[in-house]
Design the sequence.
């Protein structure tokens, strides 16, 4: 004997709290993306500096180029700062 589910189909009701949380998460993600873009545009200003000025602040042109190629989600300024500190501590950082 086959049993058939006798309860009628009821569509799932989406609660208001769920929609609000989803919208807040989307808004937060959008704001983060905008912040990453603004940070990257500010970082791009380093490309306009000459090599001597970059050396004065402890960066190399190669570091800046590598930072520009990083994904937007990564903080390029923090990454090249870490790299330059690592190179300075190892004694391998050379300025010309």
Sequence:
């Amino acid at each position: 004997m086959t049993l058939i589910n006798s309860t009628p189909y009821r569509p799932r009701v989406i609660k208001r709290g769920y929609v609000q949380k989803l919208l807040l998460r989307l808004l937060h993600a959008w704001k983060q993306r905008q912040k990453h873009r603004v940070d990257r545009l500010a970082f791009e200003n380093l490309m306009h500096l000459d090599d001597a000025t970059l050396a004065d602040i402890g960066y190399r042109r190669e570091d800046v180029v590598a930072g520009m190629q990083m994904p937007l989600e990564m903080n390029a300024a923090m990454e090249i700062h870490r790299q330059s500190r690592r190179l300075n501590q190892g004694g391998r950082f050379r300025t010309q």
Q: What stands out?
A: The chain is about 60% helix and 0% strand. The chain has a mean pLDDT of 80. The CA atoms of residues 19 and 41 lie 33 Å apart.
